Amino acid sequence: MENLDISKFGGTSVKDFESMLSSYKVVVANPNTRVVVISACSGVTNILVELASGACSAQKTEELIAKLRSIHTEIIEKLDNQDDLKANLEAHLKEIYDLTQEANMGRSDELTDRIVSHGELMSTYIFTALFNFMGTKAQWFDIRNIMRTDSNFGCAAPLVEVLKAQCQEKLLPLYADGESIVITQGFIGANSEGQTTTLGRGGSDYSAALLGEALNAATISIWTDVPGVYTTDPRLVPHAKPISELTYLEAAEMATFGAKILHPSTLVPAVRRGIPVYVGSSREPEKGGTWVRPKTESHPAFRAVALRKNQTLIVLASPKMVGASGFLASVFSVFAKYKKSVDLVSTSEVSIAVTLDAGTNTSGQSSISESMLEELRRFCHVKVETGLSLVAIIGNEMSNLPGITTQAFDSINRYAVRMICYGASNHNLCFLLKSDEAVAALVEIHKHLLE
Ligand code: ADP
Ligand code: ASP
Ligand code: MG
Protein backbone atom coordinates (compact mmCIF):
# COMPACT_ATOMS: atom_id res chain seq x y z
CA MET A 1 0.00 0.00 0.00
CA GLU A 2 1.43 3.34 -1.09
CA ASN A 3 0.51 5.80 1.66
CA LEU A 4 0.24 3.39 4.53
CA ASP A 5 -0.08 4.97 7.96
CA ILE A 6 0.59 3.13 11.23
CA SER A 7 -1.22 4.79 14.11
CA LYS A 8 -0.42 4.22 17.77
CA PHE A 9 -2.73 5.19 20.63
CA GLY A 10 -1.36 5.40 24.17
CA GLY A 11 -3.01 4.41 27.44
CA THR A 12 -4.94 7.65 27.95
CA SER A 13 -6.31 7.41 24.39
CA VAL A 14 -7.99 4.09 25.24
CA LYS A 15 -8.64 4.61 28.94
CA ASP A 16 -12.47 4.58 28.75
CA PHE A 17 -15.29 4.33 26.22
CA GLU A 18 -15.21 8.05 25.27
CA SER A 19 -11.44 8.00 24.72
CA MET A 20 -11.67 4.82 22.66
CA LEU A 21 -14.43 6.44 20.58
CA SER A 22 -12.28 9.53 19.92
CA SER A 23 -9.40 7.26 18.89
CA TYR A 24 -11.74 5.26 16.64
CA LYS A 25 -12.77 8.52 14.91
CA VAL A 26 -9.14 9.44 14.35
CA VAL A 27 -8.50 6.06 12.70
CA VAL A 28 -11.47 6.16 10.35
CA ALA A 29 -10.77 9.78 9.39
CA ASN A 30 -7.60 8.63 7.61
CA PRO A 31 -8.23 5.94 4.96
CA ASN A 32 -4.48 5.23 4.90
CA THR A 33 -4.48 4.03 8.49
CA ARG A 34 -4.53 0.23 8.21
CA VAL A 35 -2.54 -0.91 11.20
CA VAL A 36 -3.44 0.37 14.66
CA VAL A 37 -1.17 -0.24 17.65
CA ILE A 38 -2.51 0.34 21.12
CA SER A 39 -1.32 0.34 24.70
CA ALA A 40 -3.06 -1.05 27.74
CA CYS A 41 -5.81 1.18 29.19
CA SER A 42 -4.30 3.91 31.35
CA GLY A 43 -3.21 2.64 34.77
CA VAL A 44 -3.46 -1.05 33.84
CA THR A 45 0.25 -1.69 33.31
CA ASN A 46 1.04 -0.14 36.71
CA ILE A 47 -1.46 -2.49 38.36
CA LEU A 48 -0.01 -5.50 36.54
CA VAL A 49 3.56 -4.54 37.51
CA GLU A 50 2.42 -4.41 41.15
CA LEU A 51 0.80 -7.84 40.86
CA ALA A 52 4.00 -9.19 39.32
CA SER A 53 6.17 -7.83 42.14
CA GLY A 54 5.71 -11.01 44.16
CA ALA A 55 4.71 -8.96 47.17
CA CYS A 56 0.92 -8.74 46.91
CA SER A 57 -1.15 -10.02 49.82
CA ALA A 58 -4.32 -11.99 49.05
CA GLN A 59 -6.40 -8.91 49.84
CA LYS A 60 -4.26 -6.59 47.69
CA THR A 61 -4.41 -9.06 44.81
CA GLU A 62 -8.18 -9.17 45.01
CA GLU A 63 -8.40 -5.38 45.14
CA LEU A 64 -6.15 -4.94 42.10
CA ILE A 65 -7.95 -7.59 40.07
CA ALA A 66 -11.28 -5.93 40.93
CA LYS A 67 -9.83 -2.64 39.65
CA LEU A 68 -8.80 -4.31 36.37
CA ARG A 69 -12.29 -5.79 36.06
CA SER A 70 -13.97 -2.44 36.59
CA ILE A 71 -11.74 -0.48 34.13
CA HIS A 72 -12.55 -2.91 31.32
CA THR A 73 -16.15 -3.70 32.21
CA GLU A 74 -17.09 -0.01 32.06
CA ILE A 75 -16.09 0.00 28.40
CA ILE A 76 -17.58 -3.40 27.58
CA GLU A 77 -20.97 -2.31 28.93
CA LYS A 78 -21.26 0.30 26.19
CA LEU A 79 -20.73 -2.32 23.44
CA ASP A 80 -22.66 -5.29 22.04
CA ASN A 81 -21.58 -8.96 22.22
CA GLN A 82 -21.02 -8.37 25.90
CA ASP A 83 -21.09 -12.06 26.82
CA ASP A 84 -18.14 -12.80 24.58
CA LEU A 85 -16.23 -9.74 25.78
CA LYS A 86 -16.88 -10.50 29.44
CA ALA A 87 -15.85 -14.13 29.00
CA ASN A 88 -12.63 -12.99 27.33
CA LEU A 89 -11.98 -10.52 30.16
CA GLU A 90 -12.59 -13.14 32.86
CA ALA A 91 -10.20 -15.57 31.14
CA HIS A 92 -7.47 -12.90 31.25
CA LEU A 93 -8.21 -12.07 34.89
CA LYS A 94 -8.05 -15.74 35.85
CA GLU A 95 -4.69 -16.11 34.13
CA ILE A 96 -3.40 -12.92 35.80
CA TYR A 97 -4.53 -14.26 39.18
CA ASP A 98 -2.76 -17.60 38.63
CA LEU A 99 0.44 -15.91 37.48
CA THR A 100 0.33 -13.58 40.49
CA GLN A 101 0.32 -16.64 42.78
CA GLU A 102 3.34 -17.92 40.87
CA ALA A 103 5.09 -14.55 41.30
CA ASN A 104 4.44 -14.70 45.04
CA MET A 105 6.58 -17.83 45.15
CA GLY A 106 9.41 -16.07 43.33
CA ARG A 107 9.22 -13.11 40.98
CA SER A 108 11.16 -12.90 37.73
CA ASP A 109 11.36 -10.58 34.73
CA GLU A 110 10.10 -13.43 32.55
CA LEU A 111 6.98 -13.82 34.68
CA THR A 112 6.50 -10.04 34.87
CA ASP A 113 6.40 -9.85 31.08
CA ARG A 114 3.81 -12.61 30.92
CA ILE A 115 1.66 -10.81 33.48
CA VAL A 116 1.89 -7.30 32.03
CA SER A 117 1.21 -8.49 28.46
CA HIS A 118 -2.40 -9.05 29.49
CA GLY A 119 -2.90 -5.27 29.62
CA GLU A 120 -2.39 -4.85 25.87
CA LEU A 121 -4.13 -8.16 25.10
CA MET A 122 -7.29 -6.98 26.92
CA SER A 123 -7.35 -3.43 25.53
CA THR A 124 -6.86 -4.54 21.92
CA TYR A 125 -9.62 -7.14 22.16
CA ILE A 126 -12.10 -4.53 23.41
CA PHE A 127 -10.95 -1.85 20.95
CA THR A 128 -11.47 -4.29 18.05
CA ALA A 129 -14.98 -4.98 19.34
CA LEU A 130 -15.65 -1.23 19.37
CA PHE A 131 -14.72 -0.97 15.69
CA ASN A 132 -17.07 -3.78 14.76
CA PHE A 133 -19.77 -2.23 17.00
CA MET A 134 -19.35 1.03 15.02
CA GLY A 135 -19.68 -0.89 11.73
CA THR A 136 -16.00 -0.76 10.70
CA LYS A 137 -14.34 -4.01 9.73
CA ALA A 138 -11.40 -4.65 12.05
CA GLN A 139 -9.33 -7.68 12.99
CA TRP A 140 -7.55 -8.42 16.26
CA PHE A 141 -4.00 -9.59 15.76
CA ASP A 142 -1.59 -11.07 18.28
CA ILE A 143 1.65 -9.17 17.67
CA ARG A 144 3.66 -11.94 19.35
CA ASN A 145 3.25 -13.90 16.11
CA ILE A 146 5.59 -11.44 14.39
CA MET A 147 7.36 -9.16 16.91
CA ARG A 148 10.40 -11.37 17.48
CA THR A 149 12.78 -10.17 20.20
CA ASP A 150 15.77 -11.44 22.12
CA SER A 151 15.22 -12.93 25.58
CA ASN A 152 16.15 -9.86 27.61
CA PHE A 153 12.87 -9.92 29.54
CA GLY A 154 11.65 -6.50 30.67
CA CYS A 155 13.63 -4.62 28.05
CA ALA A 156 13.84 -6.92 25.04
CA ALA A 157 15.51 -5.89 21.78
CA PRO A 158 13.57 -6.52 18.56
CA LEU A 159 15.05 -8.71 15.84
CA VAL A 160 14.32 -6.36 12.99
CA GLU A 161 15.01 -8.68 10.04
CA VAL A 162 12.78 -11.44 11.43
CA LEU A 163 10.07 -8.87 12.11
CA LYS A 164 10.25 -7.60 8.51
CA ALA A 165 9.88 -11.07 7.02
CA GLN A 166 7.05 -11.98 9.42
CA CYS A 167 5.23 -8.71 8.71
CA GLN A 168 5.23 -9.33 4.97
CA GLU A 169 4.05 -12.89 5.43
CA LYS A 170 1.50 -12.59 8.23
CA LEU A 171 0.40 -8.97 8.72
CA LEU A 172 0.32 -7.44 5.25
CA PRO A 173 -2.21 -9.96 3.82
CA LEU A 174 -4.68 -9.00 6.55
CA TYR A 175 -5.19 -5.47 5.23
CA ALA A 176 -4.26 -6.04 1.58
CA ASP A 177 -7.95 -5.90 0.60
CA GLY A 178 -7.66 -2.12 1.06
CA GLU A 179 -10.55 -2.20 3.50
CA SER A 180 -9.65 -4.00 6.69
CA ILE A 181 -8.01 -2.45 9.68
CA VAL A 182 -5.71 -4.52 11.88
CA ILE A 183 -5.64 -3.78 15.60
CA THR A 184 -2.67 -5.03 17.55
CA GLN A 185 -0.66 -4.64 20.74
CA GLY A 186 2.23 -2.32 21.35
CA PHE A 187 4.90 -3.05 23.96
CA ILE A 188 4.84 -6.86 23.81
CA GLY A 189 6.67 -9.42 21.70
CA ALA A 190 7.99 -12.95 21.91
CA ASN A 191 11.40 -14.60 21.77
CA SER A 192 12.21 -17.46 19.40
CA GLU A 193 10.84 -19.97 21.94
CA GLY A 194 7.50 -18.17 21.91
CA GLN A 195 7.91 -16.77 25.43
CA THR A 196 6.31 -13.36 25.94
CA THR A 197 8.69 -10.41 26.22
CA THR A 198 8.25 -6.63 26.57
CA LEU A 199 10.17 -3.70 25.10
CA GLY A 200 10.31 -1.70 28.36
CA ARG A 201 7.89 0.84 29.82
CA GLY A 202 6.36 3.18 27.25
CA GLY A 203 7.46 0.76 24.52
CA SER A 204 4.31 0.94 22.38
CA ASP A 205 5.69 3.96 20.49
CA TYR A 206 8.69 1.83 19.59
CA SER A 207 6.43 -1.05 18.48
CA ALA A 208 4.55 1.26 16.11
CA ALA A 209 7.76 2.63 14.64
CA LEU A 210 9.15 -0.90 14.14
CA LEU A 211 5.98 -1.93 12.31
CA GLY A 212 6.16 1.26 10.24
CA GLU A 213 9.65 0.35 9.16
CA ALA A 214 8.84 -3.32 8.50
CA LEU A 215 5.75 -2.48 6.42
CA ASN A 216 7.42 0.43 4.64
CA ALA A 217 4.79 2.89 5.90
CA ALA A 218 4.57 6.45 4.59
CA THR A 219 3.79 7.85 8.05
CA ILE A 220 3.87 6.78 11.69
CA SER A 221 1.34 8.60 13.89
CA ILE A 222 1.66 8.71 17.67
CA TRP A 223 -1.68 9.75 19.17
CA THR A 224 -1.57 10.78 22.79
CA ASP A 225 -3.12 13.17 25.34
CA VAL A 226 -1.38 16.38 24.18
CA PRO A 227 -1.47 18.06 20.75
CA GLY A 228 2.14 17.35 19.86
CA VAL A 229 5.57 17.86 21.34
CA TYR A 230 5.97 21.01 23.46
CA THR A 231 8.96 23.10 24.51
CA THR A 232 8.80 21.10 27.74
CA ASP A 233 6.36 18.78 29.50
CA PRO A 234 3.16 20.89 29.75
CA ARG A 235 2.46 19.20 33.07
CA LEU A 236 5.54 20.94 34.48
CA VAL A 237 5.14 24.25 32.63
CA PRO A 238 1.48 24.75 31.68
CA HIS A 239 2.31 27.57 29.26
CA ALA A 240 4.93 25.53 27.35
CA LYS A 241 4.49 26.01 23.60
CA PRO A 242 3.69 23.38 20.97
CA ILE A 243 6.40 22.80 18.37
CA SER A 244 5.08 22.35 14.83
CA GLU A 245 8.14 20.54 13.47
CA LEU A 246 11.24 18.91 14.85
CA THR A 247 14.19 17.14 13.28
CA TYR A 248 14.75 13.46 14.05
CA LEU A 249 17.84 14.50 15.98
CA GLU A 250 16.05 17.03 18.15
CA ALA A 251 13.18 14.67 18.89
CA ALA A 252 15.56 11.79 19.63
CA GLU A 253 17.56 13.94 22.05
CA MET A 254 14.35 15.02 23.78
CA ALA A 255 13.16 11.42 24.09
CA THR A 256 16.55 10.22 25.33
CA PHE A 257 16.66 12.91 27.98
CA GLY A 258 13.25 12.17 29.39
CA ALA A 259 10.47 13.72 27.28
CA LYS A 260 8.01 10.93 28.00
CA ILE A 261 5.91 11.77 24.97
CA LEU A 262 8.14 9.50 22.86
CA HIS A 263 9.89 6.29 23.93
CA PRO A 264 13.65 6.86 23.46
CA SER A 265 13.94 4.22 20.72
CA THR A 266 10.93 5.38 18.67
CA LEU A 267 12.89 7.36 16.13
CA VAL A 268 15.49 4.70 15.39
CA PRO A 269 13.34 2.68 12.92
CA ALA A 270 11.83 5.88 11.49
CA VAL A 271 15.29 7.28 10.78
CA ARG A 272 16.43 4.04 9.11
CA ARG A 273 13.71 4.42 6.51
CA GLY A 274 13.21 8.19 6.59
CA ILE A 275 9.57 7.89 7.68
CA PRO A 276 8.01 11.12 9.04
CA VAL A 277 6.49 10.75 12.52
CA TYR A 278 3.42 12.74 13.53
CA VAL A 279 2.49 13.39 17.17
CA GLY A 280 -1.02 14.59 17.94
CA SER A 281 -3.90 14.45 20.41
CA SER A 282 -6.49 11.71 19.96
CA ARG A 283 -9.01 13.82 21.92
CA GLU A 284 -8.36 17.04 20.00
CA PRO A 285 -6.93 16.08 16.61
CA GLU A 286 -8.13 19.41 15.19
CA LYS A 287 -5.54 21.21 17.35
CA GLY A 288 -2.76 19.96 15.07
CA GLY A 289 0.49 18.43 16.23
CA THR A 290 4.19 17.99 15.59
CA TRP A 291 5.88 16.56 12.50
CA VAL A 292 9.22 14.93 13.15
CA ARG A 293 11.24 14.80 9.93
CA PRO A 294 14.82 14.62 8.66
CA LYS A 295 14.97 18.41 8.18
CA THR A 296 13.03 21.43 9.40
CA GLU A 297 12.85 25.08 8.34
CA SER A 298 13.91 26.56 11.65
CA HIS A 299 16.75 25.35 13.86
CA PRO A 300 16.79 27.51 16.97
CA ALA A 301 19.73 27.37 19.36
CA PHE A 302 17.29 26.50 22.17
CA ARG A 303 14.46 24.18 21.19
CA ALA A 304 13.24 22.46 24.34
CA VAL A 305 14.10 21.35 27.85
CA ALA A 306 13.53 17.86 29.24
CA LEU A 307 13.64 16.20 32.64
CA ARG A 308 14.83 12.70 33.38
CA LYS A 309 14.34 11.51 36.92
CA ASN A 310 15.92 8.61 38.81
CA GLN A 311 19.52 9.13 37.82
CA THR A 312 22.28 7.35 39.69
CA LEU A 313 25.72 8.89 39.69
CA ILE A 314 28.66 6.52 40.12
CA VAL A 315 31.99 8.11 40.94
CA LEU A 316 34.96 5.81 40.39
CA ALA A 317 38.27 6.93 41.79
CA SER A 318 41.69 5.37 41.56
CA PRO A 319 45.10 6.96 42.14
CA LYS A 320 46.41 4.47 39.57
CA MET A 321 44.50 6.43 36.93
CA VAL A 322 47.13 9.18 36.88
CA GLY A 323 48.96 8.96 33.59
CA ALA A 324 47.77 5.37 33.12
CA SER A 325 45.88 3.97 30.18
CA GLY A 326 43.16 1.36 30.14
CA PHE A 327 41.26 2.49 33.25
CA LEU A 328 38.26 3.74 31.29
CA ALA A 329 38.25 0.56 29.20
CA SER A 330 38.13 -1.59 32.35
CA VAL A 331 35.29 0.46 33.81
CA PHE A 332 33.23 0.41 30.63
CA SER A 333 33.75 -3.29 30.10
CA VAL A 334 32.03 -3.88 33.45
CA PHE A 335 29.10 -1.68 32.38
CA ALA A 336 28.95 -3.55 29.07
CA LYS A 337 28.96 -6.92 30.84
CA TYR A 338 25.95 -5.84 32.92
CA LYS A 339 24.26 -4.30 29.84
CA LYS A 340 24.19 -0.85 31.46
CA SER A 341 24.10 2.11 29.16
CA VAL A 342 25.98 5.12 30.44
CA ASP A 343 24.38 8.53 29.87
CA LEU A 344 26.73 11.25 31.10
CA VAL A 345 30.46 11.01 31.64
CA SER A 346 32.92 13.40 33.25
CA THR A 347 36.54 12.72 34.11
CA SER A 348 39.29 14.20 36.28
CA GLU A 349 42.87 13.16 36.87
CA VAL A 350 42.01 10.43 39.36
CA SER A 351 38.32 9.84 38.92
CA ILE A 352 35.51 9.31 36.50
CA ALA A 353 31.84 10.04 37.12
CA VAL A 354 29.07 8.46 35.07
CA THR A 355 25.31 8.50 35.30
CA LEU A 356 23.14 5.46 34.81
CA ASP A 357 19.39 5.46 34.48
CA ALA A 358 17.33 3.44 36.95
CA GLY A 359 15.98 2.01 33.72
CA THR A 360 12.87 1.57 31.62
CA ASN A 361 12.84 -2.12 32.49
CA THR A 362 9.21 -3.19 32.78
CA SER A 363 9.56 -4.64 36.27
CA GLY A 364 10.72 -1.27 37.64
CA GLN A 365 13.31 -3.08 39.82
CA SER A 366 16.62 -1.28 40.28
CA SER A 367 18.95 -2.37 37.52
CA ILE A 368 22.14 -1.33 39.30
CA SER A 369 23.16 -4.59 40.83
CA GLU A 370 25.38 -5.15 43.86
CA SER A 371 27.46 -7.65 41.88
CA MET A 372 28.27 -5.00 39.26
CA LEU A 373 29.39 -2.58 41.99
CA GLU A 374 31.42 -5.36 43.59
CA GLU A 375 33.22 -5.97 40.33
CA LEU A 376 34.04 -2.26 40.01
CA ARG A 377 35.32 -2.17 43.60
CA ARG A 378 37.98 -4.71 42.64
CA PHE A 379 39.98 -2.02 40.87
CA CYS A 380 38.76 1.34 42.16
CA HIS A 381 36.94 3.17 44.89
CA VAL A 382 33.21 3.33 44.13
CA LYS A 383 30.76 5.95 45.39
CA VAL A 384 27.08 5.78 44.46
CA GLU A 385 24.85 8.87 44.65
CA THR A 386 21.10 8.69 44.12
CA GLY A 387 18.22 11.18 44.30
CA LEU A 388 19.44 12.98 41.19
CA SER A 389 17.72 14.16 38.01
CA LEU A 390 18.93 15.24 34.65
CA VAL A 391 17.74 18.50 33.09
CA ALA A 392 18.69 18.68 29.42
CA ILE A 393 18.53 21.70 27.16
CA ILE A 394 18.02 20.59 23.56
CA GLY A 395 18.91 22.80 20.62
CA ASN A 396 21.04 23.29 17.53
CA GLU A 397 24.61 24.32 16.78
CA MET A 398 25.04 24.90 20.50
CA SER A 399 28.80 24.55 20.63
CA ASN A 400 29.30 26.79 17.57
CA LEU A 401 27.40 29.81 18.83
CA PRO A 402 28.93 32.33 21.24
CA GLY A 403 27.02 33.10 24.43
CA ILE A 404 25.09 29.83 24.60
CA THR A 405 26.73 28.60 27.78
CA THR A 406 26.44 31.98 29.50
CA GLN A 407 22.73 32.10 28.78
CA ALA A 408 22.26 28.52 29.96
CA PHE A 409 24.34 28.95 33.12
CA ASP A 410 22.64 32.26 33.97
CA SER A 411 19.28 30.58 33.81
CA ILE A 412 20.32 28.02 36.40
CA ASN A 413 22.58 30.04 38.69
CA ARG A 414 20.33 29.68 41.74
CA TYR A 415 20.90 25.93 41.88
CA ALA A 416 23.77 23.67 42.85
CA VAL A 417 24.76 21.62 39.82
CA ARG A 418 26.31 18.23 40.56
CA MET A 419 27.57 17.59 37.03
CA ILE A 420 27.48 19.22 33.58
CA CYS A 421 27.80 17.55 30.19
CA TYR A 422 28.33 19.53 27.03
CA GLY A 423 30.22 19.17 23.81
CA ALA A 424 29.80 15.57 22.73
CA SER A 425 26.88 16.66 20.59
CA ASN A 426 25.92 20.04 19.21
CA HIS A 427 22.38 19.39 20.34
CA ASN A 428 22.36 19.23 24.11
CA LEU A 429 23.62 20.69 27.32
CA CYS A 430 22.86 18.61 30.41
CA PHE A 431 22.79 19.45 34.10
CA LEU A 432 22.62 16.88 36.87
CA LEU A 433 20.84 18.25 39.95
CA LYS A 434 19.22 17.11 43.16
CA SER A 435 15.84 15.67 42.26
CA ASP A 436 13.98 17.93 44.67
CA GLU A 437 15.31 21.02 42.87
CA ALA A 438 15.17 19.73 39.31
CA VAL A 439 11.63 20.80 38.43
CA ALA A 440 12.20 24.33 39.73
CA ALA A 441 15.43 24.52 37.74
CA LEU A 442 13.66 23.29 34.61
CA VAL A 443 10.95 25.94 35.03
CA GLU A 444 13.64 28.60 35.36
CA ILE A 445 15.54 27.39 32.28
CA HIS A 446 12.31 27.35 30.29
CA LYS A 447 11.49 30.89 31.41
CA HIS A 448 14.90 32.26 30.44
CA LEU A 449 15.56 30.39 27.22
CA LEU A 450 12.22 29.41 25.73
CA GLU A 451 9.62 32.01 26.68
P1 ADP B 1 0.76 7.78 26.06
O1 ADP B 1 -0.03 7.08 27.11
O2 ADP B 1 -0.10 8.33 24.97
O3 ADP B 1 1.92 7.00 25.56
P2 ADP B 1 2.55 9.33 27.71
O4 ADP B 1 2.04 9.67 29.07
O5 ADP B 1 3.56 8.26 27.59
O6 ADP B 1 1.30 9.09 26.77
O7 ADP B 1 3.16 10.65 27.02
C1 ADP B 1 2.41 11.83 26.97
C2 ADP B 1 2.83 12.76 28.08
O8 ADP B 1 4.20 13.12 27.87
C3 ADP B 1 2.12 14.09 28.14
O9 ADP B 1 0.92 14.00 28.83
C4 ADP B 1 3.13 14.98 28.83
O10 ADP B 1 2.86 15.10 30.20
C5 ADP B 1 4.45 14.22 28.70
N1 ADP B 1 5.52 15.03 28.08
C6 ADP B 1 6.80 15.06 28.53
N2 ADP B 1 7.53 15.89 27.80
C7 ADP B 1 6.72 16.43 26.87
C8 ADP B 1 6.90 17.38 25.82
N3 ADP B 1 8.09 17.95 25.58
N4 ADP B 1 5.83 17.69 25.05
C9 ADP B 1 4.64 17.12 25.27
N5 ADP B 1 4.40 16.23 26.25
C10 ADP B 1 5.42 15.87 27.04
N1 ASP C 1 1.46 -0.20 28.55
C1 ASP C 1 2.90 -0.01 28.54
C2 ASP C 1 3.31 0.95 29.65
O1 ASP C 1 2.46 1.47 30.36
C3 ASP C 1 3.43 0.40 27.20
C4 ASP C 1 3.03 1.77 26.72
O2 ASP C 1 2.09 2.36 27.25
O3 ASP C 1 3.65 2.25 25.76
O4 ASP C 1 4.47 1.17 29.82
MG1 MG D 1 3.94 6.71 26.20
Note down, in words, how this protein is organized.
The protein has 451 residues and is α/β, with parallel strands linked by helices. The chain has 13 helices and 16 strands. The protein has an eight-stranded mixed beta sheet with strand order 3-4-2-1-7-9-10-8, with helices on both faces. The protein has a six-stranded antiparallel beta sheet with strand order 12-13-11-14-16-15. It has a two-stranded antiparallel sheet with strand order 5-6. Helix 2 runs antiparallel to helix 3, helix 3 (58-76) runs antiparallel to helix 4 (82-104) and helix 4 runs antiparallel to helix 5 (109-133). The mean pLDDT is 95. Bound molecules: adenosine-5'-diphosphate (ADP), aspartic acid (ASP) and magnesium ion. Adenosine-5'-diphosphate binds at residues 10-13, 39, 202, 224-226, 229-230, 232-235, 259-261, 304.
